[in-house]
């Protein structure tokens, strides 16, 4: 059996929490709503394991950045998937730190053979870090 490769587009909303750690003030969190859109590829590795790279444009308030995650995807069954992996983020204007590495954990539910509903949580490791919840739809071309 030949490994299958799929390509698609995705987009949705993100709810981001800007955690700012300050010595005298503890943690401060500001919730912001934004959107994302982009493309993905899905490469079957073996049986229920896939590699899924993505390239997303994310707009969050005044911040804009590119998000390039590389997920290891596991198909729990025909409908549910778990995605986990690192993501590389290029911020167009976010203080002076342009490039950041983050960790993502996500779940997807296949609504049809072409359409999925997905959710992921992303976390950063810096003092000023936009951690967030992403909720959207993906469509295989």
Characterise the protein shown here.
The chain has 141 residues and is an all-beta fold. The chain has a single domain (5-140), classed as Beta Barrel (Porin), CATH 2.40.160. Helices cover 0% and strands 78% of the residues. The chain is built from no helices and 8 strands. InterPro entries: OMP/PagP_B-barrel.
Total individual domains: 1
- How many strand segments? 8
Helical content, roughly? Answer: under 10%
- Low-confidence parts: 22-26
Number of helices: 0
- Per the principal axes of the C-alpha atoms, what is the gross shape? globular
Named at the architecture level, the CATH assignment is Beta Barrel
The CATH topology annotation reads as: Porin
InterPro entries: OMP/PagP_B-barrel (IPR011250)
Organism: Winogradskyella thalassocola
Protein name: Outer membrane protein beta-barrel domain-containing protein
List keywords for this structure.
141 residues; mainly beta; Porin; globular
